[in-house]
Amino acid sequence: xxxxxxxxxxxxxxxxxxxxxxxxxxxxxxxxxxxxxxxxxxxxxxxxxxxxxxxxxxxxxxxxxxxxxxxxxxxxxxxxxxxxxxxxxxxxxxxxxxxxxxxxxxxxxxxxxxxxxxxxxxxxxxxxxxxxxxxxxxxxxxxxxxxxxxxxxxxxxxxxxxxxxxxxxxxxxxxxxxxxxxxxxxxxxxxxxxxxxxxxxxxxxxxxxxxxxxxxxxxxxxxxxxxxxxxxxxxxxxxxxxxxxxxxxxxxxxxxxxxxxxxxxxxxxxxxxxxxxxxxxxxxxxxxxxxxxxxxxxxxxxxxxxxxxxxxxxxxxxxxxxxxxxxxxxxxxxxxxxxxxxxxxxxxxxxxxxxxxxxxxxxxxxxxxxxxxxxxxxxxxxxxxxxxxxxxxxxxxxxxxxxxxxxxxxxxxxxxxxxxxxxxxxxxxxxxxxxxxxxxxxxxxxxxxxxxxxxxxxxxxxxxxxxxxxxxxxxxxxxxxxxxxxxxxxxxxxxxxxxxxxxxxxxxxxxxxxxxxxxxxxxxxxxxxxxxxxxxxxxxxxxxxxxxxxxxxxxxxxxxxxxxxxxxxxxxxxxxxxxxxxxxxxxxxxxxxxxxxxxxxxxxxxxxxxxxxxxxxxxxxxxxxxxxxxxxxxxxxxxxxxxxxxxxxxxxxxxxxxxxxxxxxxxxxx
Amino acid sequence: xxxxxxxxxxxxxxxxxxxxxxxxxxxxxxxxxxxxxxxxxxxxxxxxxxxxxxxxxxxxxxxxxxxxxxxxxxxxxxxxxxxxxxxxxxxxxxxxxxxxxxxxxxxxxxxxxxxxxxxxxxxxxxxxxxxxxxxxxxxxxxxxxxxxxxxxxxxxxxxxxxxxxxxxxxxxxxxxxxxxxxxxxxxxxxxxxxxxxxxxxxxxxxxxxxxxxxxxxxxxxxxxxxxxxxxxxxxxxxxxxxxxxxxxxxxxxxxxxxxxxxxxxxxxxxxxxxxxxxxxxxxxxxxxxxxxxxxxxxxxxxxxxxxxxxxxxxxxxxxxxxxxxxxxxxxxxxxxxxxxxxxxxxxxxxxxxxxxxxxxxxxxxxxxxxxxxxxxxxxxxxxxxxxxxxxxx
Lengths: 670, 393
Known about the structure:
The complex is a heterodimer. Chain A folds into three domains: 9-58, no CATH class; 67-341, ABC transporter involved in vitamin B12 uptake, BtuC (Orthogonal Bundle), CATH 1.10.3470; 389-661, ABC transporter involved in vitamin B12 uptake, BtuC (Orthogonal Bundle). By secondary structure, chain A is mainly alpha-helical. In chain A, a hairpin with a 2-residue loop joins β4 and β5 (198-201). In chain A, α1 (60-95) runs antiparallel to α8 (248-274), α12 packs antiparallel against α18 (522-545) and α15 runs antiparallel to α21. In chain A, strands 2-1-3 form a three-stranded mixed sheet. Chain A has helices spanning 60-95, 102-120, 124-147, 156-177, 202-224, 226-236, 238-243, 248-274, 282-296, 301-321, 327-341, 373-389, 393-418, 427-443, 448-467, 475-495, 497-500, 522-545, 547-557, 559-564, 569-595, 605-618, 623-639, 647-661, and strands at residues 9-12, 38-39, 53-56, 192-195, 198-201, 513-514, 517-518. Chain B folds into two domains: 2-158 and 294-362, Response regulator (Rossmann fold); 161-287 and 374-385, Rossmann fold. Helix content of chain B is 45%, strand content 18%. Chain B has 13 helices and 16 strands. Chain B has helices spanning 2-5, 16-37, 56-75, 95-106, 120-133, 161-174, 188-203, 222-230, 242-254, 270-276, 296-309, 315-334, 338-347; strands at residues 43-49, 84-90, 111-116, 137-138, 154-155, 179-185, 207-214, 235-239, 261-263, 284-287, 351-353, 357-359, 361-362, 367-368, 374-379, 382-385. A seven-stranded mixed sheet of chain B has the order 7-6-8-9-10-15-16, sandwiched between helices. In chain B, α9 (242-254) links the parallel β8 and β9 (261-263). At the A-B interface, α1, α2, α4, β5 and α10 of A face α3, β2, α4, α5 and α7 of B.
């Protein structure tokens, strides 16, 4: 994996001259005897990162000094995560919802702050108040317009709505302020305190203060005030709270206002901290906030702060051990470990009961649209004849993309819809399949047809193995776990350079070929992908009609009852994932051969999210729905292409309207 | 259409009115003037690049360079009297979209050459389509060493890492630095540069004592910098873009490191100084493009850019501008047939270029060699030519 141990170890015999805290600026000044450091390696190793590890051989003081610095740095960044995690925890605690729009509000806060400081020249306290008020208002609007109408619909609907809202908000910010990063200068005095070899500044302390203060205020509010009790009552049982005369809507509105105000404020502070804001900063913010609050215990406000600090520390120590590119790997492995061993979080304790549904309320129950068999065959015939009628390679390529997305959606609709295991990291399966097939074809000269099939098998096996630890989780937790597993796969691909070629990516992947005949033309590729989709769809329909499909639906609808009937949950989930992994792996493999180039970002988390959107659009568990959804969601952005800049905005709004008015999807859930 | 698109965008909240008015005025001035001299069916360049998504700012930078170049080309009679225009398709630098765009372009006979995409992921996924269709894919930001190996229709005038990185190593050596710590953007570009840098630094008698890759979305570098510190370097080398380079420069100072910073030319942007604040002061960098460069190509570009956009041009603006000027020269000299453009790129000599002075392709590698460069240092809130003073002296 990484060759740190072999080549690049440098033993520095020199004593660290000064790591005393007194030397604020000078402390890390290079020591004059540093040159006596002896290089034991004559060449630099090929390992990706951590090319050099420093072994301070005779100086334990140096060890300790660095350790203190790593700790301080971990706490500094954890401090930043805490501001985000508190808001997320609050919303999860009450609305039982991972708010994917939280990062967008954070971005909005940063930009409002920027506008105040650079245009209105407001002093910092005023800026903070404006940001708090404006973002609180944004929160109220999100709740009122985006989420309240979804009450009573399936639990997945608000989750998706927040994703749609985040698309819309990010895009609006980008349209108004341009995508260029901007400087957000801090107005705080520029004094620094030396700790260890580094320093912390006024802003660090302000961020910590606001994080702790807001957690304390929230804690007191929830515990000691009447409205706080109402909030907690709503969190525990919405209907019961309603019957006891709690104005549930007002409570939700208040919670979103508070959480969003905090989110916006953190955007402002973090923007000032880095002197850098850009419209793309929201996704990472949401991701880290979610990880931090899961570590601390989902919905647990004080836990969110502690979890953030733990996350910051683990990341920092991870960098110390292996290098910068391993930071997120440590973060997500920690997340998985917490989910598996302590799903209530490190600080959840006994009180954190799982409010996850026992029965299938995660999926909107509905009667699926019955499509008569002759009509289905007509559709297939139409699709097959299309290249003859419309020879435009652009249309065919777009539809080929749709078929490839449909393969992924079939796999996801089986896992999420039929088996009830929502996956937010499905793109990882594409990556595994793509790399498997590309490397088999390139390194072992396996014929592409064979390598694609082998990639399907490898993906099925590896995917099931990776998800296996998460089988005991339910609902939101499995969504978070799969999100993390997806990120882990990407990071392993990036760091395992000897196998995957790391950041350089795999180039020169041979095109698909059947019996020595290369498949190049848009028509041929179209037919091939269509055939694979139809084959997989038929197989999946057959499976769903069998006892296997019934068993999966039983697990989805009531896993306790299913277990009482003697169903081995793990075995059936594993079978579903193996079959789903096979289809997704094939899709990834074909994509790799079409693109001829592949790197760890080819299938990123956006792909996972759009796969989920396809499945929802078509109707969870609905085979035909997955295909129709893929054609719609791949086709729509192409149709909106004329409107370039506004395209993602329109896409987001369309998604929101769909979730609002047809949560069971176009063709209904099965 | 492309000429005017930007005019509606609000750039700075405080300058809405002034900016909008100025832009509308310019747009109104420019278009009739351009059309007065050109007529007939426009010659179309297909651009595939990010206008939305994570890399949207680069697409916006491109447009400014393109529009300026088009204004100039069409002002001088376009392509043999026909107006030159581009069609910008938003790919979000996503390979799934860039392949669809590729199919769209190759099947549209009006598109005579393609420019882009931004990332190598997106460009190289589309390469097989362009290669088979015989449409030149001009990846002007694609420095991936394998990009032009995708086929003889893949061309690039992006500055080759084999050119630029040894120069950075030499600059570090000229500054008297012997023990270097490298922080590089962990992409194909950064990774390639890092490898070349380590080798060439050795040639100049400097050792690379630490080499740390980081992810493009990384914001916090404090812990990374502790690793750097513990390697006891006497200089820190950044292989970064301006946004992440500025973030690192700030944090280098706040963790108490005082070593001089030498950064690769990609940080050369007014944004680097804006984002880096005080920490940008004293950062050494080199650039293929420097507005105070007395060369006439540079001066004419900078003057026009400032007049039109009221801001300082950066590297991306310059290379986008260069690309259009180059393609226009090829078309004027060798014709607007797809094949003619392909052949012309290999034949054309000494096209005036902001980056290269005079650009000529090596027909084997399909790249341009020999970009000139200047040594720069950040001083008084701007980039200035290096005065030859070594740090600490």
